[in-house]
From TrEMBL:
Its main location: membrane. It comes from Lentilactobacillus raoultii. This is MFS transporter. Residues 7-385 form the Major facilitator superfamily (MFS) profile domain. It is a multi-pass membrane protein. Keywords: Cell membrane, Membrane, Transmembrane, Transmembrane helix, Transport.
């Protein structure tokens, strides 16, 4: 039991380290802008580039490493991740910094996919939902604690020390991986074509669009969270910091609740979640004249954002373990891949909505994607129920 707790901690630490690196840029935009003499908007493209490289590269690299030992693959990927952050540390030009971030993004998605694969390998079925929820919470903790820490370090000691902090945590994480995780973990050997057979399954085809539209719905408004809080709900700058921290905690609560769902109804609970989310999004613009009501609606929406994580991850893993054991890592990567596509889709949609209709439109705009997510999860639940005797 003690070994399982240590291994669980290491998997959460991997997620925290990867999330810390991914989200840090948001907190040090101004410092990087001054350092390299480019606009804040230009530095902001680092976030977009990272997300797109992460989403596009992950499935290809996942397929290539599928036949190798997953423990040593994870060690190599974390080594490249550390190298990428080291290159960011020593970057002397903005172009060099972009290249270093691309290197980091190339391996981040595959590393978390392997970490999620380890969940099924080291934990009994009854504990998988609990552990998955904590691994996903690692990213939330990185957002709530890691980014403010990185920002504070950057402000007081320089942005390079922020990257040095990530490197230090990464080295410690690699040491703990080496000491604690089982080294014989391999998925069933198969060709790339054999691994891709997973994607022919209708349960996977429907399921992989759920995290995309789920996050697209949220990011239509979440991209503009700060201006919504300050200009629409009229909170002070000081209150903004407090609310962002509270919303970060709300995200952790959502992740933990997501784990609880896997012990109960799982995906069967999600239609009710999306009905509630739809109502909240439609009501959001009407709350803009009532500061605390608006803050409450935002908090409830942020809690709803990660509820899908553990149930859909368990769904992917169960389908792969039973019918496509050669595709476990690919199955583990689908949630993170399509979540990043969803972030890009939602952010782009939000930009169009705000440009043409103003900030008041982001709630109803997100509700359209929520409706699509609702239809998909109802369809998937029907398909799972229909195929239950033969498969799941």
């Amino acid at each position: 039991m003690k070994q399982f707790k240590v291994q669980s901690f290491v998997l959460v630490l991997i997620a925290f380290t990867l999330g810390f690196s991914e989200f840090l840029i948001v907190g040090i935009l101004d410092d990087l802008s001054k350092q390299f003499g480019v606009s804040v908007a230009t530095v902001g493209y680092l976030v977009t580039i990272f997300a797109m490289v992460y989403a596009i590269s992950t499935p290809f690299i996942t397929l290539l490493i599928g036949k190798y030992n997953l423990f040593w693959s994870l060690m190599v990927l974390m080594g490249i991740f550390t190298l990428g952050n080291t290159l960011s540390l020593v970057a002397q030009s903005f172009v060099f910094l972009v290249i270093s971030r691309i290197i980091t993004a190339l391996v981040s998605g595959v590393a978390i996919s392997i970490a999620l694969s380890f969940v099924g390998y080291i934990s009994p079925m009854a504990r998988q939902g609990w552990l998955l929820s904590w691994v996903f919470s690692g990213f939330s903790i990185a957002s709530v604690l890691g980014v403010p820490l990185g920002t504070w370090i950057s402000t007081n000691f320089g942005w390079r020390i922020s990257f040095l902090t990530i490197i230090g945590i990464s080295v410690i994480t690699m040491g703990l991986i080496l000491l604690s995780l089982p080294r014989g973990f391999k998925q069933k050997g198969s060709s790339i074509g054999g691994q891709l057979a997973l994607l022919k399954d209708h349960r996977i085809q429907i399921g992989m669009f759920l995290p995309m539209f789920n996050l697209a719905a949220i990011y239509v408004f979440y991209t503009y969270l700060r201006p919504i809080i300050t200009t629409q709900l009229h909170f002070s700058t000081g209150m903004l910091t407090i609310l962002l921290f509270v919303f970060g905690l709300a995200n952790i609560i959502g992740n933990q609740t997501s784990g609880k769902l896997t012990e109960g109804p799982g995906l069967k609970a999600m239609p009710k979640v999306y009905v509630t989310q739809f109502i909240l999004l439609v009501a959001l613009p009407f709350s803009f004249n009532y500061s605390w009501l608006g803050a409450f609606l935002l908090m409830m929406l942020i809690i709803s954002m990660p509820l899908l994580n553990s149930p859909i991850q368990i769904h992917f893993l169960q389908v792969a373990e039973k019918d496509y054991p050669q595709s476990i890592v690919l199955a583990s990567s689908l949630n993170s891949i399509f979540s990043n596509f969803g972030i890009a889709l939602g952010s782009a949609t939000g930009g169009v909505m705000v440009s043409h209709f103003g900030m008041i439109s982001v709630g109803p705009g997100g509700a359209v994607y929520t409706l699509m997510t609702f239809c998909l999860v109802v369809w998937l639940n029907h398909l799972n129920q229909k195929l239950a005797p033969q498969s799941l």
